[in-house]
Design brief:
It comes from Vigna radiata var. radiata. With 540 residues, this protein is α+β, with helices and mostly antiparallel strands. It has ten helices and 23 strands.
């Protein structure tokens, strides 16, 4: 549907000459001669009318220049005006529709490759572990830090390369590692990855992924340690359980053998995941749930229990901008009571876990949760929300002002065109009245909802609304000598000379009242529908 609308929007030049997108070369030449004669500046003596005529005559000439050239017309039909300004060089070698289309595709692929080569995707994280008890004991607030960073580059549509590393310091000990990964897409259903790492976990490995069906994927890999030569085999099976849920089973065989079973479910407002993992001297179960309260705020709760851990996380987050968000989490478990602050910006994140106490004091635990939560909700109600409302209102006013200025400019252009059409439209109207032919008595174009009210309302004054424009003059102007009027299918009517788009972004339709042979008629049609009058089915 989106592609169809895009294609229809690329037909404004046809609307300008009132032509079908399938018009022949002769029909284009005939329409050009007709409209060039009607809008020629030499027909007008008054300076302001001559200026209006010159402006519209240039539009007619530009439309004819493009539609009369077979190569330019083919490009315009496929890609619109953007295609004509995309850098495509026309010449004798481009003498067919397929050749032109292939050349355009080649240029698009070349631009995509340039974008891919220049497009690096960096990501990273900084974790700074802090301890309030340690600080109170005089040993410093910072316990340890860990940093990870990686850069991914798409070498081509099939190949990607990732390089990264990590560094961790805890107390007086530290270490790090550097790794590289190369991924090659073998086909639309399978890929292979080669990985190498040096440092604390020096290893080399390979893994392959294949789509077993439209709902199932399998990944198998093998890695060898460069320290002791030990091997680790890994298998991962995932399956789509429903439109919003999936599950997985992971099996690792090696020095640290384990098996894990998990699931994930996600829709527009909620997401949840869980995993159960067993291994040599290892047991761990975890669950994580997130609920999005609005477009900018969310709440989350998570729990973990295992052979060496038992904790619950509760918190929330807020989106600060298009690329930034912040979260606060309250953590209570056998390790103590902690706060965790998380800041996300693009692919980067900063995580600050702060241990408040190692003792599970009920009063302290309640205070550590309710005091910051109450502070946040207070700030949100009296400071954050009013600020965002003011900013949203200001942005809306700016957008409305900009759109209003564009609509005003388009209305002015349409009114100027109607001034040129007025005399010819009146002559045609009088001639049709004498012969009992087709006369447009009223025509409105604009907001579909507003015009639809005419079907069930006795209201007759819709011209005053800013969402509707009166197009009685342009339609009378387009009536031919035989007393007929045709607007072609698939052509947006706002492109017709004397029309404009009074409500950008909203569905539009055309309402027409007309008389023919002493009878009254009326009809509603959609923005891209064909109009052919007179027609018996329109009779009141």
């Amino acid at each position: 549907m989106a592609e169809q609308n895009e294609s229809q929007d690329n037909r404004e030049l046809y609307a300008l000459l009132n032509l079908s997108p399938d018009a022949s070369d002769e029909e284009i030449r005939r329409a050009y001669r007709q409209w060039a004669q009607a809008y020629h500046p030499d027909k007008y003596q008054a300076p302001h009318m001559k200026d209006i005529a010159t402006e519209n005559f240039q539009r007619i000439c530009e439309a004819y220049e493009i539609l009369s050239d077979p190569q330019k017309r083919q490009i315009y039909d496929i890609y619109g005006m953007e295609g004509l300004t995309s850098g495509l060089e026309l010449g004798p070698t481009l003498n067919g529709a397929e050749v032109i289309k292939a050349e355009l595709e080649r240029l698009k692929r070349m631009k995509e490759r340039e974008k891919l080569v220049a497009h690096f995707l960096p990501s990273g994280a900084i974790i700074a572990n802090m301890s309030l008890p340690r600080y109170l004991d005089g040993d410093g607030l910072l316990v340890g830090m860990a940093m990870t960073s990686q850069i991914q580059s798409h070498l081509s549509k099939r190949n990607a390369f990732t390089i990264g590393g990590n560094l961790a310091v805890n107390g007086g000990e530290g270490g790090g590692a550097a790794n590289a990964l190369f991924r090659h897409q073998l086909s639309k259903d399978s890929s292979v990855e080669f990985v190498a790492s040096v440092g604390l976990r020096a290893l080399i490995g390979v893994q392959t992924t294949r789509n077993l069906s439209s709902h199932s994927t399998a990944t198998m890999g093998v890695a060898m340690s460069l320290r002791d030569g030990s091997l680790n085999l890994s298998n991962l099976w995932t399956r789509q359980l429903s439109e919003t849920a999936s599950g997985h089973i992971e099996l690792n065989l090696g020095q640290q053998s384990s098996i894990a079973v998990g699931w994930q479910k996600k829709d527009e407002r909620r997401s949840a995941s869980g995993e159960l993992k067993f291994g040599t001297g290892l047991f761990e179960a975890s669950v994580h749930c997130t609920h999005r309260f609005s477009r900018k705020s969310l709440g989350c709760i998570a729990g973990r229990v295992g052979s060496s851990s038992l904790e619950i996380e509760v918190g929330g987050g807020r989106k600060l901008s298009k690329f930034s968000s912040v979260r606060w989490l309250y953590v209570i478990g056998i390790q103590g009571i902690s706060w965790k602050f998380e800041l996300y910006r693009g692919g980067q994140k900063i995580i600050l876990p702060i241990l408040l106490t190692r003792h599970l004091n009920p009063v302290f635990a309640a205070g550590a949760f309710f005091i910051p939560a109450s502070l946040y909700f207070g700030l949100k109600k009296f400071l954050i929300k009013p600020y965002y409302l003011r900013r949203s209102k200001q942005k809306g006013l700016e957008e409305e002002k900009e759109s209003s200025a564009q609509v005003k400019e388009a209305r002015t252009a349409a009114e100027k065109a109607q001034k040129l059409q007025q005399n010819v439209a009146n002559r045609k109207r009088n001639k049709q009245l004498e012969t009992g032919g087709l006369v447009i008595t009223r025509a409105l174009y604009g907001n579909q909802i507003v015009l639809s009210n005419l079907k069930s309302s006795s209201e007759t004054s819709f011209e005053s609304t800013s969402d509707v424009i009166d197009v009685t003059i342009p339609l009378n102007f387009l009536v031919n000598d035989s007393g007929q009027l045709k607007l072609h299918e698939g052509v947006k009517k706002s492109g017709i000379m004397g029309f404009c788009d009074p409500c950008p972004g909203r569905p539009k339709e055309l309402y027409v009242e007309y008389v023919y042979a002493g009878n009254q008629f009326k009809v509603w049609i959609g923005d891209f529908e064909e109009l052919q009058i007179p027609k018996g089915s329109h009779r009141i």
